[in-house]
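Listing S7. Sequence submitted for prediction.
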Amino acid sequence: MIGFLRGRIAAKHPPLLVMDVAGVGYEVEAPMSTFYGLPAVGTETTLHTHLVVREDAHVLFGFGTVRERSLFRELIKVSNVGPRIALAILSGVSVEDFYRCVESDDVAALVRIPGIGRKTAERLVIEMRDKLKALAGPLPAVDGPGGAAAVAPTAHSEAFSALIALGYKPAEVLRLLKAVDPSVKSTEEMIRHALRSAASA
């Protein structure tokens, strides 16, 4: 098992990023909650990782904090919740907000996350309630100072691809991105604004 990666961020294409670790490029999938805290491309940082081994591929998932990774690991133990849905949950709500949803039986808030139906949301509330205490604790910060990523000319298309990967339909993605303030230029900020709009809809 690969526990963490420390290296330079070579590329960011949400939800995928590439980490250059001693000359080896690791492709890592990460939730948007992690992307929001990442420094700029070319900066060194540390990601806490979880390796999922499938018959057809080995997929490495990265997280800015141990707490995010811990929640991810518990989520994929829930019936019918695989890594993709767990990643969507962490992209749609913060760890703290997920805890609040479970504690208050707020199924409606979980259903608003792409890929989460009512039955899955109800199962999450039931199965995760007993696990919250084990996951409680301080939220570590991502190593290295935060910083805005360099503005890429393809930020809009990258945001579009990331939202599609999170489960949104193309027409809905177009609507969400159209509502983003034109002053927002970075991919991460576009996705952040779009997800906020979707959550408040």
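Caption to Listing S7: primary sequence and predicted structure tokens for the chain studied. The domain at 66-135 is CATH 1.10.150.20 (DNA polymerase; domain 1). The beta strands are 4-13, 16-21, 24-29, 44-53, 58-63.
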